[in-house]
Amino acid sequence: MSLNPLSLILKENKLEGPNYVDWKRNLNIVLIADDYKFILDTDCPILPAENATDEEKAVHKKWMKGNEMTKCYILASMSNVLQHQHHSYQFAYEIMENLQSLFGTQSRSARSLTIRSLMNKL
């Protein structure tokens, strides 16, 4: 398996906390390029029954594979401390929800500071 060359962006810009907004933007770029962004936007399909159609089984399998890949991208692109805090999460969206709660307020204040700065220059 070869990783998307865009994944180098994540390697070079690991999440440390204060850079959450930039890191999340870069993560979304990589996930879109590798066709895994849907993992953060859709719920995990219910485990198909044994008598489920091949299509239902394929949808579930694709989602689970995408979740594992997305978790790998997320965990590989964060500091060791954050990796340790998040490695036991089952779903990628759970990691992202927790990161949002940890660093999302910083992103709002940083965004508002940036907007004020831009408006003052006009």
Tell me what the structure shows.
The chain has one domain. By secondary structure, the chain is mainly alpha-helical. The chain starts with 6 loop residues before the first helix and ends with a helix. The chain contains six helices and no strands. It is elongated, with a radius of gyration of 17 Å. Helix content is 69%, strand content 0%. The protein has helices spanning 7-12, 20-33, 38-41, 54-76, 80-86, 92-121. The longest helix is centred in the C-terminal third of the chain and has 30 residues, at 92-121.
Radius of gyration: 17 Å
Strand content: under 5%
Helix content percent band: 55-70%
What is the 3D form? elongated
Number of helices: 6
Strand elements, count:
0
Structural class, from secondary structure content? mainly alpha
Sheet with the most strands? none
Tell me the domain tally: 1
Order of helices and strands: HHHHHH
Mean pLDDT: 87
Features of the shown structure:
122 residues; mainly alpha; 69% helix; 0% strand
Describe how the helices and strands are arranged.
Blueprint: H1 7-12, H2 20-33, H3 38-41, H4 54-76, H5 80-86, H6 92-121
In a few lines, what is going on in this structure?
With 122 residues, this protein is mainly α. Helix content is 69%, strand content 0%.
